[in-house]
Design brief:
Rossmann fold; 326 residues; five-stranded mixed β-sheet; single chain; six-stranded antiparallel β-sheet; D-amino Acid Aminotransferase, Chain A, domain 1; 10 helices; alpha+beta; 3 domains
């Protein structure tokens, strides 16, 4: 009997739609000759197993199973592809740990850390990472726009500290735009991060590790005519994504080395993507870490896997087998 894989998608953030698209990608990438796959969607308290487009069955949260035609169906492994809460911030990982379910990505602490951009970047800074200067705002907290602009300069970026896919992000060019940008970012969560502008080349670096190997993918260079790498650039084609990136072999190797090092110091697992900007002086700066990176048709990781000359089915098999250990 083939192992049964739950592809867990949806979630309770603005990224829910992107997550469902990632689930479609992952389902197509997993080797159907080796594994049975079932989509499981989570929206608030509604957890549903969807074996096909016309079927849905409530998940029993006691053991993450479902009943169909009077028969109980259990899963051997969960591939988490929720971007945002509860799948990217450690909540779902804690639940799976409690019931003994194997899953694809990092554990509770690493997930919670990487989900909080401000905390993660400050943590990585302690291990030598270069980062943008930043200020953290919490909902209800008084702040001085003038003081923040004076400290960080213009332009600066205002974004949710716990969101992704560029929802709620504003590139603030004038001080008069600041308060509206903060209000917009607070629509995505209770914390907002304001970051200084870094001028340079934006890159993203994907990788994974198993018990026996480390696999760094080729870097992707992100070039867009938009103000920044926003939602339209990410998902509506308003971008050039150049893989491998147009960097020297030495700088490429250094960013891949940093990616693997940060992977370890954060305690990551599965596929991870770390975004960088190489400033005009040639220094890589960490933007953020993604421990449940997008896996849609336009996402970076599938591009990088192809550029590496790898079969993404083999990558998925590595991730699954590393955990279920057959």
């Amino acid at each position: 009997m083939k192992p049964s894989i739950a592809i867990v998608a949806g979630g309770d953030s603005s990224e829910s739609e992107v997550s469902l698209r990632s689930a479609q990608g992952i389902r197509s990438f997993i080797d159907a000759d080796r594994y049975d796959t079932t989509l499981v969607t989570i929206h608030g308290g509604e957890w549903l197993a969807r074996p096909s487009e016309t079927e849905s069955y409530p998940i029993d949260k006691d053991d993450f199973s479902y009943c169909k035609d009077g028969q109980k169906h259990r899963f051997d492994f969960a591939y988490i592809t929720i971007h945002g809460t509860p799948g990217e911030n450690g909540i779902l990982q804690g639940y799976f740990d409690l019931i003994g379910m194997k899953y694809s990505c990092c554990g509770v602490l690493a997930a919670a850390l990487t989900f909080n951009k401000f905390a993660c970047n400050r943590y990585l800074q302690a291990f030598g990472a270069k980062i943008a200067r930043s200020v953290l705002l919490r909902k209800g907290q008084a702040y001085s726009a003038a003081d923040i602009v004076k400290e960080l300069g213009l332009p600066c970026f205002v974004k949710s500290n716990v969101g992704g896919s560029s929802f709620g992000v504003t590139k603030v060019k004038e001080a008069s735009q600041f308060d509206a940008a903060v209000s917009r970012a607070f629509q995505e969560g209770d914390e907002v991060i304001v970051e200084s502008f870094l001028k340079g080349t934006e890159l993203t670096s994907g990788m994974y590790k198993t018990k026996t190997k480390t696999v760094n993918f080729p870097l992707t260079e992100v070039v867009t005519a938009n103000e920044f790498f926003d939602y339209d650039a990410k998902y509506n084609g308003q971008v050039q994504e150049i893989t491998p990136a147009r960097l020297s072999p030495e700088l490429t190797a250094e960013i891949q080395r940093q990616t693997a090092y940060y992977y370890d110091v954060m305690g990551c697992k599965g596929i991870v993507r770390i975004d960088f900007i190489v400033t005009e002086d040639g220094v890589p700066h960490v933007l953020e870490a993604n421990t449940t990176p997008g896996m849609t048709a336009t996402s970076f990781i599938p591009q990088q896997v192809r550029a590496a000359g790898l079969d993404i089915k083999d990558v998925m098999t590595d991730i699954i087998e590393n955990e279920i250990g057959r």
